[in-house]
Amino acid sequence: MVHQADTPAGEATLLAVEGVSKRFRSGSRSTQALHRISLHLRQGTVTGLIGPDGAGKTTLMRLIAGLLLPDEGLISVLGIDVIKNPLRVQRSLGYMPQRFGLYEDLTVRENLDLYADLQGIPVADRPVRYADLMTMTGLGPFPDRLAGKLSGGMKQKLGLACTLLRPPRLLLLDEPTVGVDPISRRELWGIVHRLVKHEATTVLLSTAYLDEAERCDDVVLLHHGEVLGQGHPADFCLPLVGRSFQVSLPDIPRRTLQNRLAQAPGVLDATLQRGGIRLIMSAGAQINPATLLPGSPGARVTPVPPRFEDGFITLLKEKEKHSDNASRGTPVFHPAPDRARNSSVPLKEHQNPIVVDRVTKRFGNFQAVKEVSFSVSEGEVFGLLGANGAGKSTTFRMLCGLLPASDGTLRVAGKDLRRAPAEARAHIGYMAQRFSLYADLSVSENLSFYSRAYGLSGAAQRERVAWALDEFELGDYAGMTSSQLPLGYKQRLALAAALM
Predict the structure, then answer these.
(1) 3-state secondary structure 92-120
(2) What DSSP designation does 207 have?
(3) d(CA 281, CA 278)
(4) Helix (H, G, I), strand (E, B), or coil: what is residue 33?
(5) Whether 191 contacts 159, CB under 8 Å
(6) How do 407-412 and 415-416 pair as beta strands?
(7) Parallel, antiparallel, or unpaired: how do β-strands 46-50 and 202-206 relate?
(8) pTM, full prediction
(9) Angle between helix 152-163 and 182-199 (nearest 10)
(10) How many CA atoms lie within 13 A of 31 on its CB side?
């Protein structure tokens, strides 16, 4: 296990967390969010907070910001006790939560004015700071644009600008790049590194992207409220030297090959890669093609260097092996089961279940989509890629019959969406960017509601809800309201609802 509890000599500790625990209680349910967490942040560094859904990342940030009180332990920022002096600490740090509270009916400048008022920034000091922030975030050309009209990446940058109105010594960013395009992610990271280099800001940043974790000076791995390790990203690769491989086997579908390898002795993890399957072997396990894939003499096994992602997943899976909570698992890392399609509405055979032919969508004089054409084959995963504002969501909404196309043809399951949208929608599950969960309903109640909306009842409904709770590992959360779920579990619930 990689662990770095102590700060190297000569480097100032800006944040110290010692033996912190936090438990939440709701009715008869009790959840241990954090258990005796200890970590240190060095001044002028970027530390990544990494972990699966529900690991405790958001809870830890709220405790550091003085928004929650721990059940036990100590938290110190700049030598100030957060528990005793939360307001003093909050004047020295900036905190950007997952859903920053922008006012969408206010312009960019009006949002800045509002947060400047809340932070007590003198009016005379604002123009220079605004100018710096607008240049830093690239929002300079858009001071009068409504926040609700900004792309996802621009909203995140405006939220960051509002957080940085008063230059913080410590900046807490809770998954700031979730839901933004790769260009905006890169721009946000550019802002973070500029803050560290030019303003001596120390940053604690949680992220769902492991490639982002590799950009950090240090990373802290959380799992079920415990620290698995802290150190430089490269340190997590060292124990895996000689244990990572790529396997290819001609004429066998990659997903089938993945599932076979995942069940082979000594295999800790098997993931899809271009050109084959990436394997991580258990410590001491021997790599033998004949044992991995008996009866398949054409298998090719090639050593590859370990990555940070390999170290992260290895720590998680080794922890699960020895954990009392192993039954909960970490489903995001499990290989997809090779099972038959399970649908309440049978889909007839079509060569191309989705066909988009020269489709255009206009909003007044603005063309959101211009003569787009593509088709999707049966059983295919087809990706629409593009920056925020490229037209992806508009295309999805047209495919679901929620927006009429201005020109062109859209067909789903053989149904023309311009002529028979209701019939086409019977074959479609749709999970939007802003998924429509009912915050005051429990997980089970949300699934029951959506299953009824899709026409299920009686035994069929009960079976489908039970399937969703099991497939998405939501059983432990069945009685929890959706508003209380971590973001990743909300996404799972929304996808389960779309598959009713």
Answers:
(1) CEEEECCCCCCCCCCEHHHHHHHHHHHCC
(2) -
(3) 10
(4) strand
(5) no
(6) antiparallel
(7) parallel
(8) 0.77
(9) 20
(10) 17
Token pair in block for residue 150 = 């900004």
CA angle in degrees (0–180, nearest 5) for 388-207-8: 140
Sign, Cα dihedral of 299, 303, 306, 311:
positive
For β-strands 276-281 and 267-273, DSSP reports them as antiparallel
Among 298, 286, 294, 291, CA closest to 245: 286
Helix (H) or strand (E) holding 344: none
DSSP conformational letter for 457: -
Count of beta carbons in the 10 Å neighbourhood of residue 300: 12
For residue 226, what are the contacts with CB-CB under 8 A and spacing of at least 6?
Answer: 34, 35, 36, 37
Laid out side by side, the sheet with 29-42 consists of 29-42, 13-26, 72-77, 80-81
Q: What are the phi and psi torsion angles at 94 (to 5°)?
A: -115, 140
Measured distance CA(384)–CA(395) in Å, rounded: 9
**Orientation of helix 443-453 relative to helix 487-498, angle to 10°:** 20
Contact (CB, 8 A) for 236 and 214 = no
Direct distance between the N- and C-terminal alpha carbons of the chain, in angstroms, rounded to an integer? 41
Please give the Cα distance from 465 to 324 (Å, whole number).
27
Question: Which two three-digit tokens encode residue 353?
Answer: 């279940």
In the numeric block, the tokens 């799992």 are attached to: 223
Query: Alpha-carbon distance 352 to 497, whole Å?
Result: 25
Query: What is the rounded CA–CA span in Å between residue 43 and residue 17?
Result: 14
How many degrees, rounded to 5, is the angle at CA 95 between CA 91 and CA 101?
Answer: 115
Cα dihedral 99, 328, 324, 51 in deg (nearest 10):
-30
Q: How many CB atoms lie within 10 A of CB 330?
A: 20
Sign of CA dihedral 138, 139, 142, 147: positive
Contact predicate 261/270, CB 8 Å = yes
Going from the first residue of the chain to its last (500 residues), give the mean pLDDT of each consecutive group of 10, the final group possibly shorter.
43 86 82 92 92 89 95 94 93 88 93 94 94 91 90 87 92 87 84 90 90 91 91 90 91 87 91 88 87 86 91 82 48 36 42 90 90 90 82 89 91 87 83 81 93 90 94 89 84 91
Specify the residue for token string 């110290």: 16
* Residues found in the chain: 500
